[in-house]
Amino acid sequence: MEIRQLKAFLAIAETKTFTAGARLMNVTQAAISMQIRQLEEEVGLPLFTRTPRRVILTEAGDSLIDRARKILREHDAAIAEIAEIAGAEYGRLRIGSSSSMFASEQLPGILEKLKQKFPNAEVTVSSGTSQALVEKIMHGEIDIAFVSLPVETSNVQTELLFSDEIVAIAHPSHPLAKENVISAAALAGEHLILGEKGGNTRRMIDEFFQAANVKPNVMMELSRQTAINRMVENQMGVGIAGAKNVAREVKDGKLVSWLIEGAEIKWELGLARLRGGYFSPISKEFVKLCKESFKEREKELKARK
Questions:
Q1: pLDDT in tens, 150-193
Q2: Cβ–Cβ contacts within 10 Å for residue 119, how many?
Q3: pTM for the complete prediction?
C-alpha cells in the first residue's frame, strides 16, 4: 500500500469521480485508475462501486477512508518534522477563518509579526463557515482555523480566544428603541438580518427560536457581521451581534441594542486544530500571537465603554 495510492483513493472518494480525482491529483485518468486497481488488488476487495455519473464507496472503501486520512496526516507530519530538523523548511501554515471581522481587522497584523520570525514561511488563508473549516482540518486540508465554539468533534481540539454576549440590534428610530429587553416573539416578528447558516451562532439562534415555539421572519442572511451592522444602521431590519463588537456604535448613537429575553447565547471564537497532530514551531508562534492580539482587543473594547 503506497502513499500515492492512498492519495489517489482519497481524491476519488472526495470528488466522487475518477475524472475529478485525476484532475485534483494532476495525473491522467489512466494513471489514477491504475493506482486504484493496484490498491484493490492488494486489499483483495473493490473500494468503489462504479456508476455512470459517480463512484460510491463500498464497505471496504468506507472502512479504509479514515485510516487513509490518518496515514497521510502522519506521513505529512513526519516529512515536516524531518525537514525542520534538516533546516530545509522554514514553515508552512494553512489558516482558515470563519470570522470576516477578525480576518480583516486582526489577522493582517498577526501575519505581519509572524512573517518577521518566519520570513520564508508559506502561509495561506482561506475562509468558510465553522463547520466547513472543521471538515478541512479533519481532512488535512488546513492546519488551524478560527471557528465558533463549541466544536463537537473529538478529533479536533480548540482553545478559546474571545467571548461576547449576543444581543439584538436596531436603528435608534425603532419604536422599541428605548426598551432594554425584547421578547422572543417580538424579535421573531421583526425583519431579521442574520448570519449565514453553518456557524454555531446561527445554529444557537435558530435553536432559541425553535425552543420558544416562534418562527423568525428572516429577510437577509449575510456572511459578514459588518454588513449586518450597516444594514441595520440603514433601517433595513433588526440584526443580531456581539455586545462588545457593537459597543462603539451604540455609544455613538448609530445603533441601539436589546438583551434577548430568555436567551443566554454567547459568541465564542476559538482556534481549532487536529488533536494529536504535529504542532510545528510556526503554529506555536501563530497561536501565541493570536492570544496576544485578542488580549489587546479586549483592552480596546473595554476602553470604548
A1: 898 888 999 999 999 999 999 999 999 999 999 999 999 999 99
A2: 9
A3: 0.65
Query: Could you tell me how many residues make up the chain?
Result: 305
Residue 189 phi/psi, 5-degree rounding, is -80, -10
Delineate the domains of the chain, giving CATH numbers in brackets.
Answer: 3-71 (1.10.10.10), 86-161+268-304 (3.40.190.10), 164-267 (3.40.190.10)
Angle of CA points 271, 277, 283, to nearest 5°: 50
Beta-carbon count within 10 A of 183 CB: 15
Grid coordinates representing 119?
520570513
